[in-house]
Design goal:
With 119 residues, the chain is mostly helical. Helices cover 60% and strands 0% of the residues. α3 packs antiparallel against α4, α4 crosses α5 and α5 crosses α6.
Length: 119
């Protein structure tokens, strides 16, 4: 029994392009990834995106990192589905969120990064 599958270079096989393709041989005009990333960051920095009020207060020094965390927890409670909770339920949710920020390794690392960046 013979197979119709052929190896590279045979009928239906993959042929590798020559190493000296025109882009490589003449020096590509495309920028490197690092240059493209720098350009993207520069254009993003130039765009006047509105800054989050909590981030702005933190950058201005009007609140500390702990205050920023508390403000974000309060925002989550006010804007989330907690509106239908009883006052006791809201307090339980607040305590749960603060506990998660302290005990969850990923969230705690984010809070530590925030604190170390403002130190």
């Amino acid at each position: 029994m013979t197979s119709s599958v052929k190896g590279p270079g045979g009928p239906g096989g993959i042929v590798q392009p020559p190493i000296d393709t025109p882009d490589r041989a003449q020096g590509s005009t495309k920028s490197s990834f690092r240059e493209a990333l720098s350009e993207a960051r520069a254009s993003a920095a130039g765009a006047a995106a509105p800054m989050d009020p909590v981030a702005r207060a933190l950058a201005d020094g009007t609140i500390d990192p702990a205050g920023a965390v508390n403000a974000l927890v309060e925002r989550a409670i006010e804007n989330g589905r907690a509106q239908g909770l009883t006052p006791a339920g809201i307090e339980a949710l607040r305590a749960h969120l603060l506990t998660a920020l302290e005990n969850d390794p990923a969230l705690a690392a984010l809070v530590r990064d925030l604190e170390s960046s403002k130190a």
